[in-house]
Input
Amino acid sequence: MDQSMRDRVAIVTGASNGIGKGIAEAFAAAGAKVVLVARRKDVLDGVARDIASSGGQAMAAPCDVTNEAEVVALFQRARDAYSRVDIVVNNAGVASGTAIDALSLAAWNDVVAINLTAVFLMCREAVKVMKAQSPQGGRIINMGSVSAKTPRPDSIAYTATKHAIQGMTHQLTMDGRQYGVVASVIHPGATLSSFTSRRGRTDAGPGATPDDYVMSAADVAKVAVLMCSLPPEVNLYEATILPNNMRSFIGRG
Ligand SMILES: NC(=O)c1ccc[n+]([C@@H]2O[C@H](COP(=O)([O-])OP(=O)(O)OC[C@H]3O[C@@H](n4cnc5c(N)ncnc54)[C@H](OP(=O)(O)O)[C@@H]3O)[C@@H](O)[C@H]2O)c1
Output
């Protein structure tokens, strides 16, 4: 059994569904104590039960990551339960596909609140805890998207926030190294989640056309486990993970 993350304490946001749930399950299987974060407590409780029945350790910690007071309380709760925080995965996010001339300020602000401002709040609290704890340091993984490299049409809010996540990760890595805090960004292509089920996909794997291959959350989770399994002085800073057939990303023809 892989125990590469044995006893490390990891907070994973968006752990009730999709990629975050896959990462939480993979971390627990690798021996981590996982703090499961999302808004739906009943769903998180189910994920925690499934992890426990597979022999892992996880705690449901419902929290709206756009709410500053709830984020501050989340870190206190994690420390009360497990004494420290080694890893934070900022995965919770929303998709948005609206042409700029139809996008209201309120809709723009909603996307920025969850995809960007919430990540800032989580990173700020993570850095405070990781800097103060002994042994000092930790890892932060931010969920980007291939949209930070190659946008879809009519996705200005989503694309802008995912580009900002790249910049935030760079800044965190530079500023945190003196405290042993490192940050990484994962840019997934199409992965089975509520994003893809809205397009009618219920299974990972091939679709109607070669371009419609959808990865599983477990595929993306392997990258997160690898990032966290490296020695503390080494960082896999950025990873783009794609279905081989995602031709529009790689090039023409
Ligand atoms: N799936 C893809 O193809 C794909 C590709 C590239 C990047 N990504 C990125 O991967 C990340 C995860 O997306 P996903 O595809 O797994 O989506 P998903 O299935 O919709 O999951 C989103 C998760 O975020 C949580 N969440 C949403 N708002 C929240 C809030 N205010 N506070 C706390 N939790 C919140 C949701 O739980 P609750 O509803 O219970 O709060 C849910 O667990 C996102 O950052 C997304 O941009 C996805």
Observations:
- The CA atoms of residues 192 and 202 lie 7 Å apart.
